[in-house]
Amino acid sequence: MTFTAEAAGGKEGYTYKFIVYNKTTGTWGLVQNYSSKNICTWTKGSAGDRYFYVDVKDAAGNVVRSEALNVKIEATAPKVTLTGSSETVNAGAKLTLTAQTTLGSGCTYKFIIFNPATNQWFKLQDFSSSNTFTWTAGSDGTRLFYVDVKDADGNVTRSKALNVTIGNGSANWLSVKATVSSNTSKTGDKITFTAEGVGGKAGYTYKMVVYNKTTKIWGLVQNFSSNNTITWIAGTTGDREFYIDVKDADGNVARSAVMNVTTTK
Questions:
Q1: Which fold has domain 174-264?
Q2: What integer pLDDT is reported at residue 168 of this predicted model?
Q3: pLDDT-based confidence at 169, cuts 50/70/90?
Q4: Which of 21, 28, 83, 170 fits a disulfide with 140 by CB distance 3.0 to 4.6 angstroms?
């Protein structure tokens, strides 16, 4: 989109500044700072209502502002959509996922799933020419499905989440209460984590994992075990995130909230 300004009066030797106000977000933006260029090109961004202005400064330093130019950008249809054969299915039932795209020919499709109860991601189908995938529902709960579409140039676009409920969602009733003895430590200190399974079917086992934000590496502290009190000895300095997974007697898994620990020398 091109804007053209023409100054009149004052002392010749004009410079022009183009600015925009996004009425939707309530923010101002600079499109082009003062320069001798009286033509400015702007590339449309997100949908919304915008007002454009140009400030003109003459050779004597006097400044005047133009009237507003209103530009409305309509929301475009998503380039990738994912639909399911049903919004609710029973455990063991089939769910068919179908992807549609306007990205042209030669696209490939990757289907992925996120389980909020366990905070885990899984790949259902790697990039393939097939735009459908049939999934067999597992334990009760909620799942979020996505499809990544790769176009002929290798660009990848992800769909919005498709939310599907399995059974009555009883897996969501399983939860874990987890506490940590301290959120700060020094190298060599012992930190104690305690977990308690809630809901689901009694007969809990516990697994603890750690994510080192400094090295961006995951580690296993304890695999599934009946032990619900876990001691960790602080290693190198850095920030870490700890999680405890609880598994009930039916095999349902839930993950705790994050527990942050910072280790210093």
A1: Immunoglobulin-like (2.60.40)
A2: 67
A3: low
A4: 170
CATH number at 11-73: 2.60.40.10
DSSP state of 170: G
Cβ–Cβ < 8 Å for 80, 149 = yes
Element (H, E) at 108: strand 108-115
Whole-number Å distance between alpha carbons of 185 and 179? 15
Q: Which of 91, 85, 129 is nearest to 107 (CA)?
A: 129
Element spanning 75, H or E? none
**Tell me, what's the pLDDT at 213?**
92
Q: How would residue 56 be classed by pLDDT, with cut points 50, 70 and 90?
A: very high
Q: Return the structure tokens found at 80.
A: 């990738």
Taking alpha carbons only, the member of 196, 197, 193 closest to residue 209 is 193
Mean pLDDT check: name the lowest of 67-76, 95-104, 240-249: 67-76
Q: How many CA atoms lie within 13 A of 45 on its CB side?
A: 12
Phi/psi of residue 173, nearest 5 degrees: -75, -25
Q: Where in the chain is the domain with CATH 2.60.40.2550?
A: 174-264
- In the chain, CATH 2.60.40.10 sits at 11-73, 80-171
Per the CATH hierarchy, to which homologous superfamily does domain 80-171 belong?
Answer: Immunoglobulins (2.60.40.10)
pTM for the full predicted model: 0.44
